[in-house]
From TrEMBL:
Xref: PANTHER family: 2-KETO-4-PENTENOATE HYDRATASE, ACID HYDRATASE
Domain of life: Bacteria
Protein name in the entry: 4-oxalocrotonate decarboxylase
Native source species: Amycolatopsis azurea DSM 43854
Matches recorded under InterPro entries: Fumarylacetoacetase_C_sf (IPR036663), Hydratase-Decarb/MhpD_sf (IPR050772)
Lineage: Bacteria, Bacillati, Actinomycetota, Actinomycetes, Pseudonocardiales
Amino acid sequence: MTAEISALAERLDTAQITCADTPSLADDHEIGLADAYAIQAELVARREARGERVLGVKLGLTSEAKMAQMGVSEVIAGRLTDAMLVADGGEVSLARFIHPKVEPEVAYRLARDVDLADPAFDVESAVDAMAPAIEIIDSRYRDFRFTHTDVVADNTSAAGYSLGPWRPFGEAANRAVRLRSGDREVIGSTAAILGDPARALHALVELCRKRDIPLRAGQVVLAGAATEAVPFAPGVAEVDIAGLGRVSVRGLA
Ligand code: OOG
Ligand code: MG
Protein backbone atom coordinates (compact mmCIF):
# COMPACT_ATOMS: atom_id res chain seq x y z
CA MET A 1 0.00 0.00 0.00
CA THR A 2 1.65 3.20 -1.08
CA ALA A 3 1.30 6.28 1.08
CA GLU A 4 -0.55 8.08 -1.73
CA ILE A 5 -3.19 5.37 -2.04
CA SER A 6 -3.77 5.39 1.72
CA ALA A 7 -3.98 9.17 1.80
CA LEU A 8 -6.54 9.28 -1.01
CA ALA A 9 -8.62 6.50 0.62
CA GLU A 10 -8.59 8.53 3.82
CA ARG A 11 -9.63 11.66 1.94
CA LEU A 12 -12.66 9.90 0.43
CA ASP A 13 -13.51 8.16 3.72
CA THR A 14 -13.44 11.48 5.56
CA ALA A 15 -15.63 13.10 2.89
CA GLN A 16 -18.23 10.37 3.43
CA ILE A 17 -18.11 10.44 7.23
CA THR A 18 -18.26 14.23 7.49
CA CYS A 19 -20.68 14.72 4.55
CA ALA A 20 -18.28 17.23 3.02
CA ASP A 21 -17.56 16.87 -0.67
CA THR A 22 -14.08 16.81 -2.15
CA PRO A 23 -12.72 17.87 -5.56
CA SER A 24 -11.96 15.29 -8.25
CA LEU A 25 -8.74 13.41 -7.39
CA ALA A 26 -7.80 13.77 -11.06
CA ASP A 27 -7.45 17.54 -10.53
CA ASP A 28 -4.12 17.04 -8.79
CA HIS A 29 -3.21 13.33 -9.00
CA GLU A 30 -2.27 10.94 -11.79
CA ILE A 31 -4.16 7.79 -10.94
CA GLY A 32 -4.39 4.66 -13.06
CA LEU A 33 -7.32 2.25 -12.92
CA ALA A 34 -5.38 -0.31 -10.84
CA ASP A 35 -4.59 2.47 -8.33
CA ALA A 36 -8.27 3.45 -8.28
CA TYR A 37 -9.35 -0.10 -7.39
CA ALA A 38 -6.58 -0.18 -4.75
CA ILE A 39 -7.95 3.04 -3.22
CA GLN A 40 -11.44 1.51 -3.22
CA ALA A 41 -10.12 -1.65 -1.51
CA GLU A 42 -8.41 0.47 1.15
CA LEU A 43 -11.56 2.58 1.61
CA VAL A 44 -13.65 -0.56 2.15
CA ALA A 45 -11.01 -1.99 4.51
CA ARG A 46 -11.34 1.18 6.61
CA ARG A 47 -15.11 0.63 6.80
CA GLU A 48 -14.59 -3.02 7.76
CA ALA A 49 -12.15 -1.96 10.47
CA ARG A 50 -15.04 0.10 11.91
CA GLY A 51 -17.19 -3.04 12.04
CA GLU A 52 -19.00 -2.89 8.71
CA ARG A 53 -19.47 -6.09 6.71
CA VAL A 54 -19.43 -6.40 2.92
CA LEU A 55 -22.81 -7.80 1.86
CA GLY A 56 -22.53 -7.43 -1.86
CA VAL A 57 -21.09 -5.97 -4.99
CA LYS A 58 -22.55 -3.43 -7.38
CA LEU A 59 -22.02 -2.68 -11.01
CA GLY A 60 -22.26 0.84 -12.35
CA LEU A 61 -22.52 2.53 -15.72
CA THR A 62 -24.11 -0.51 -17.34
CA SER A 63 -26.69 1.67 -19.11
CA GLU A 64 -26.35 4.29 -21.83
CA ALA A 65 -28.49 6.68 -19.77
CA LYS A 66 -26.03 6.55 -16.87
CA MET A 67 -22.98 6.71 -19.10
CA ALA A 68 -24.39 9.80 -20.79
CA GLN A 69 -25.45 11.36 -17.46
CA MET A 70 -22.02 10.88 -15.87
CA GLY A 71 -19.80 11.26 -18.94
CA VAL A 72 -18.00 7.98 -18.17
CA SER A 73 -18.48 5.06 -20.55
CA GLU A 74 -17.00 1.99 -18.89
CA VAL A 75 -18.57 -0.50 -16.54
CA ILE A 76 -17.35 -0.15 -12.94
CA ALA A 77 -17.69 -2.25 -9.76
CA GLY A 78 -17.96 -1.32 -6.09
CA ARG A 79 -18.82 -2.89 -2.73
CA LEU A 80 -22.02 -2.75 -0.65
CA THR A 81 -21.84 -2.94 3.15
CA ASP A 82 -24.40 -3.61 5.87
CA ALA A 83 -24.28 0.05 6.90
CA MET A 84 -25.71 0.96 3.48
CA LEU A 85 -28.71 -1.39 3.67
CA VAL A 86 -32.11 0.23 4.22
CA ALA A 87 -35.11 -2.04 4.88
CA ASP A 88 -37.83 -2.11 2.22
CA GLY A 89 -40.32 0.56 3.32
CA GLY A 90 -37.77 1.82 5.84
CA GLU A 91 -36.62 5.32 6.64
CA VAL A 92 -33.24 6.89 6.08
CA SER A 93 -32.03 10.30 7.16
CA LEU A 94 -30.97 12.41 4.19
CA ALA A 95 -28.55 14.20 6.51
CA ARG A 96 -26.33 11.12 6.20
CA PHE A 97 -25.54 12.06 2.61
CA ILE A 98 -23.95 14.90 0.65
CA HIS A 99 -26.26 15.06 -2.41
CA PRO A 100 -28.02 11.70 -2.71
CA LYS A 101 -29.72 10.37 -5.82
CA VAL A 102 -31.79 7.23 -6.35
CA GLU A 103 -31.75 4.77 -9.22
CA PRO A 104 -33.79 1.70 -10.17
CA GLU A 105 -31.86 -1.56 -10.20
CA VAL A 106 -32.23 -5.33 -10.44
CA ALA A 107 -30.62 -7.28 -7.58
CA TYR A 108 -29.38 -10.86 -7.81
CA ARG A 109 -28.42 -13.16 -4.94
CA LEU A 110 -25.48 -15.56 -5.09
CA ALA A 111 -26.23 -19.04 -3.70
CA ARG A 112 -22.59 -20.13 -3.87
CA ASP A 113 -19.14 -18.64 -4.17
CA VAL A 114 -18.02 -17.62 -7.64
CA ASP A 115 -14.75 -19.32 -8.55
CA LEU A 116 -12.96 -16.43 -10.23
CA ALA A 117 -10.01 -18.69 -11.09
CA ASP A 118 -12.26 -20.82 -13.34
CA PRO A 119 -12.63 -19.10 -16.73
CA ALA A 120 -15.61 -21.33 -17.59
CA PHE A 121 -17.50 -20.61 -14.35
CA ASP A 122 -21.25 -20.32 -15.06
CA VAL A 123 -22.27 -17.36 -12.93
CA GLU A 124 -25.97 -17.70 -13.73
CA SER A 125 -25.94 -21.18 -12.17
CA ALA A 126 -24.68 -19.57 -8.94
CA VAL A 127 -27.63 -17.15 -8.72
CA ASP A 128 -30.75 -18.33 -6.92
CA ALA A 129 -32.91 -15.21 -6.59
CA MET A 130 -33.65 -11.75 -7.94
CA ALA A 131 -35.45 -8.69 -6.62
CA PRO A 132 -36.30 -5.09 -7.51
CA ALA A 133 -33.88 -2.68 -5.84
CA ILE A 134 -33.30 1.01 -5.21
CA GLU A 135 -29.74 2.21 -5.08
CA ILE A 136 -28.87 5.44 -3.27
CA ILE A 137 -25.75 6.93 -4.82
CA ASP A 138 -23.88 9.82 -3.23
CA SER A 139 -20.67 10.76 -4.98
CA ARG A 140 -18.16 12.19 -2.56
CA TYR A 141 -17.02 14.49 -5.37
CA ARG A 142 -18.18 18.07 -5.68
CA ASP A 143 -21.20 18.40 -7.99
CA PHE A 144 -21.01 14.68 -8.93
CA ARG A 145 -18.12 15.67 -11.22
CA PHE A 146 -15.67 12.81 -11.63
CA THR A 147 -13.52 10.80 -14.01
CA HIS A 148 -13.61 7.03 -14.51
CA THR A 149 -10.75 6.49 -12.02
CA ASP A 150 -12.27 8.97 -9.53
CA VAL A 151 -15.58 7.12 -9.35
CA VAL A 152 -13.88 3.72 -8.98
CA ALA A 153 -11.76 5.05 -6.10
CA ASP A 154 -14.94 6.43 -4.48
CA ASN A 155 -16.46 2.92 -4.34
CA THR A 156 -18.62 3.86 -7.35
CA SER A 157 -20.67 6.40 -5.34
CA ALA A 158 -22.19 3.56 -3.27
CA ALA A 159 -24.13 4.98 -0.30
CA GLY A 160 -27.29 2.94 0.23
CA TYR A 161 -29.57 0.27 -1.19
CA SER A 162 -32.88 -1.35 -0.47
CA LEU A 163 -34.18 -4.67 -1.74
CA GLY A 164 -37.76 -5.65 -2.55
CA PRO A 165 -39.07 -9.20 -2.12
CA TRP A 166 -36.86 -11.96 -3.52
CA ARG A 167 -38.24 -14.29 -6.17
CA PRO A 168 -36.60 -17.24 -7.92
CA PHE A 169 -33.93 -16.31 -10.46
CA GLY A 170 -35.21 -16.12 -14.02
CA GLU A 171 -35.54 -13.94 -17.08
CA ALA A 172 -35.64 -10.21 -16.26
CA ALA A 173 -35.06 -8.66 -19.68
CA ASN A 174 -37.39 -6.09 -21.24
CA ARG A 175 -39.31 -5.31 -18.06
CA ALA A 176 -40.88 -1.88 -17.67
CA VAL A 177 -39.19 0.14 -14.90
CA ARG A 178 -40.62 3.12 -13.01
CA LEU A 179 -38.71 5.26 -10.54
CA ARG A 180 -40.38 7.95 -8.46
CA SER A 181 -38.82 10.43 -6.03
CA GLY A 182 -40.37 13.77 -5.04
CA ASP A 183 -41.98 15.25 -8.14
CA ARG A 184 -39.72 13.29 -10.50
CA GLU A 185 -40.79 10.17 -12.31
CA VAL A 186 -38.62 8.28 -14.77
CA ILE A 187 -39.79 5.42 -16.95
CA GLY A 188 -37.45 2.91 -18.54
CA SER A 189 -36.75 -0.75 -19.24
CA THR A 190 -34.40 -3.37 -17.86
CA ALA A 191 -33.26 -3.76 -21.48
CA ALA A 192 -31.20 -0.61 -20.84
CA ILE A 193 -28.91 -2.68 -18.56
CA LEU A 194 -26.45 -4.06 -21.14
CA GLY A 195 -29.46 -5.31 -23.16
CA ASP A 196 -30.40 -7.72 -20.33
CA PRO A 197 -29.48 -7.41 -16.64
CA ALA A 198 -28.25 -11.04 -16.68
CA ARG A 199 -25.40 -9.78 -18.88
CA ALA A 200 -24.33 -7.59 -15.99
CA LEU A 201 -23.56 -10.79 -14.07
CA HIS A 202 -21.09 -11.82 -16.74
CA ALA A 203 -19.55 -8.34 -16.87
CA LEU A 204 -19.26 -8.42 -13.09
CA VAL A 205 -17.38 -11.72 -13.04
CA GLU A 206 -14.92 -10.40 -15.60
CA LEU A 207 -14.35 -7.19 -13.62
CA CYS A 208 -14.06 -8.99 -10.28
CA ARG A 209 -11.56 -11.45 -11.75
CA LYS A 210 -9.44 -8.60 -13.06
CA ARG A 211 -9.68 -6.46 -9.93
CA ASP A 212 -9.56 -9.20 -7.29
CA ILE A 213 -13.00 -8.57 -5.83
CA PRO A 214 -14.37 -11.77 -4.27
CA LEU A 215 -17.95 -12.89 -4.98
CA ARG A 216 -19.29 -15.02 -2.15
CA ALA A 217 -22.34 -17.14 -1.36
CA GLY A 218 -25.13 -15.03 0.11
CA GLN A 219 -23.91 -11.79 -1.42
CA VAL A 220 -26.17 -9.45 -3.34
CA VAL A 221 -25.26 -8.12 -6.77
CA LEU A 222 -26.73 -4.87 -8.09
CA ALA A 223 -26.75 -4.98 -11.89
CA GLY A 224 -26.62 -1.21 -12.50
CA ALA A 225 -29.26 1.45 -13.01
CA ALA A 226 -31.88 1.02 -15.73
CA THR A 227 -32.41 4.79 -16.06
CA GLU A 228 -30.71 8.04 -15.16
CA ALA A 229 -30.54 8.78 -11.42
CA VAL A 230 -32.81 11.44 -9.86
CA PRO A 231 -32.30 13.45 -6.67
CA PHE A 232 -33.42 11.61 -3.52
CA ALA A 233 -36.01 14.12 -2.30
CA PRO A 234 -37.51 14.06 1.20
CA GLY A 235 -40.42 11.61 1.17
CA VAL A 236 -40.91 8.29 -0.55
CA ALA A 237 -38.68 7.03 -3.34
CA GLU A 238 -40.13 4.03 -5.09
CA VAL A 239 -39.07 1.60 -7.80
CA ASP A 240 -41.49 -0.66 -9.63
CA ILE A 241 -40.31 -3.31 -12.09
CA ALA A 242 -42.97 -5.17 -14.10
CA GLY A 243 -43.22 -8.77 -12.94
CA LEU A 244 -40.54 -8.28 -10.28
CA GLY A 245 -42.38 -6.06 -7.85
CA ARG A 246 -41.70 -2.86 -5.98
CA VAL A 247 -39.47 -1.46 -3.28
CA SER A 248 -39.53 1.87 -1.51
CA VAL A 249 -37.62 3.90 1.04
CA ARG A 250 -38.53 7.11 2.82
CA GLY A 251 -35.99 9.91 2.98
CA LEU A 252 -36.27 12.04 6.11
CA ALA A 253 -35.36 15.69 5.70
C1 OOG B 1 -21.67 6.30 -10.32
C2 OOG B 1 -22.43 5.05 -9.95
C3 OOG B 1 -23.21 4.50 -11.12
C4 OOG B 1 -25.03 2.86 -11.82
O1 OOG B 1 -25.94 2.11 -11.48
O2 OOG B 1 -24.82 3.15 -13.00
C5 OOG B 1 -24.18 3.46 -10.74
C6 OOG B 1 -22.53 7.55 -10.25
O3 OOG B 1 -23.39 7.73 -11.11
O4 OOG B 1 -22.31 8.36 -9.34
O5 OOG B 1 -24.35 3.06 -9.61
MG1 MG C 1 -26.25 2.04 -9.42
